[in-house]
Write a structure and sequence with these properties.
With 323 residues, the protein is an alpha+beta fold. It contains ten helices and ten strands. Strands 1-5-6-3-2-4 form a six-stranded antiparallel β-sheet. A four-stranded antiparallel β-sheet has the order 7-8-9-10. This is Flagellar motor switch protein FliM.
C-alpha cells in the first residue's frame, strides 16, 4: 500500500497546516511570574472570604456599639500578592498593627486607613466622627485609645476564626510608617483581605495581611468539605454573645415621677420661690419609674450614701396584677 503523498512546501494545504500548528504551539505556552506564585487555591480563597465575611459582621456590630454611629463593613476583595507589593501599595502614613496569632508561629498585620482611624478616634472623644487630618501623628493619649479599640477588634478577628482554628491574637505596638514593618521576606506570598469600611460619612479601608507561611497548616480546614462540616450552631454563640454585650451597653432614659397635679395657666404664672405644689400622690403611694417614657417599675423614695435614691419594689405588670 503506497504511502500518502505529503503536499509540497509551496502548496496551500501545507501552509494552512503550518499556521494551525503554530497557533497550537502559541496556545500551549503561558507566561508564569515566579515572583507572583499563586500558593492559595480558589477553594482556599473562598474559605478565607467566608471567614472574613463573618469577621466583618462581628466588627460592624462591635464598632456600632462602641462608636454609637452608623457603621458598615464588608469584604471588598481577597488577593494573594508578594509581601513587597502589599507594602508598596500602602500610603506613606497609615495605622499599622502587628499581632501574633498564638499559638501559631509568625505574625499578621492589620492596617487601618487614617481617615477611618481618625473618624473612630473623633467619635470616641465625643466628636461627630470627622476624619480630621493630623499631620503630627497620634498623641500618647490617642495612641492608648486606639490601642484599646484595635485590641477589641482583634477579639472579633479571633471569634471569626474560632470555628476553623482557635488562637489568641497578641497585639504589638502601633506604627504609622509601613517601611518600618517587615513581617516576611519581600517575595513571600501573603493573602490580603480588604474590608470596605464606612463610619458615618467617612469611608476607607481596613486591610488584613496574612502570610502564607503563618496559615499554611490551616489551609486544609478552609476547604468546602471541612467548612460544611462545621455546624452553624457552633458559630452562633459568639455572635449572640457579642449582640448581648452591645444591647447591655445601650443607654436608656429612666425617670421617676414623684407625682402629678393640674394647675391653671394663671396659677403657673404666679408661682414664686418657696411656693408649695400639692401633688395627687399619697405619701405611702409607690412612685412610677418610666423607661423611655413607658411605665416599667414602681419604687419607694429614700437615700443611699447621702444621695436621693429610689428602691424598686415591683415591676409595673406585677403591681397591676396584684391590684
Amino acid at each position: 500500500m503506497e504511502n500518502e503523498k505529503k503536499p509540497a512546501l509551496n502548496h496551500p494545504l501545507y501552509q494552512i497546516q503550518q499556521n494551525l500548528d503554530g497557533q497550537k504551539r502559541k496556545k500551549s505556552v503561558r507566561k508564569y511570574d515566579f515572583k507572583r506564585a499563586l500558593r492559595f487555591s480558589k477553594d482556599q480563597v473562598r474559605g478565607l472570604t467566608r471567614v472574613h465575611e463573618n469577621f466583618a459582621r462581628l466588627l460592624t456590630t462591635q464598632l456600632s456599639a462602641q462608636l454609637r454611629t452608623f457603621v458598615q463593613i464588608h469584604v471588598s476583595s481577597v488577593d494573594q500578592v508578594p509581601y513587597e507589593d502589599f507594602i508598596h501599595s500602602l500610603p506613606d502614613k497609615t495605622l499599622l498593627t502587628v499581632f501574633e496569632p498564638v499559638p501559631l508561629e509568625g505574625r499578621m498585620l492589620m492596617e487601618v486607613n487614617l481617615p477611618v482611624a481618625y473618624s473612630m478616634l473623633d467619635r470616641l472623644l465625643g466628636g461627630s466622627g470627622e476624619a480630621a487630618d493630623k499631620g503630627d501623628g497620634l498623641t500618647e493619649i490617642e495612641t492608648k485609645i486606639m490601642t484599646k479599640l484595635i485590641r477589641r477588634s482583634l477579639e472579633a478577628f479571633r471569634d471569626a476564626w474560632h470555628s476553623v482554628e482557635p488562637f489568641h491574637p497578641e497585639m504589638g505596638d502601633l506604627e504609622e510608617n509601613p517601611q518600618f514593618i517587615q513581617l516576611v521576606s519581600p517575595n513571600e506570598t501573603v493573602i490580603v483581605i480588604s474590608l470596605e469600611t464606612t463610619i458615618g460619612e467617612v469611608s476607607g479601608r481596613i486591610n488584613l495581611c496574612l502570610p502564607y507561611v503563618v496559615i499554611e497548616e490551616l489551609l486544609p480546614k478552609l476547604s468546602v468539605h471541612m467548612w460544611m462540616q462545621t455546624k452553624q450552631k457552633e458559630r452562633m454563640p459568639h455572635e449572640k454573645e457579642e449582640l448581648q454585650k452591645s444591647v447591655r451597653r445601650a443607654n436608656l432614659d429612666l425617670t421617676v415621677e414623684l407625682g402629678t397635679t393640674t394647675v391653671t395657666v394663671e396659677e403657673l404664672l404666679d408661682l414664686r420661690e418657696g411656693d408649695v405644689i400639692r401633688l395627687g400622690t399619697g405619701i405611702d403611694a409607690p412612685l412610677r419609674v418610666n423607661v423611655e417614657n413607658e411605665l416599667r417599675y414602681f419604687a419607694q423614695p429614700g437615700k443611699r450614701k447621702q444621695k436621693i435614691a429610689v428602691q424598686i419594689t415591683a415591676e409595673a405588670e406585677e403591681a397591676e396584677t396584684h391590684d
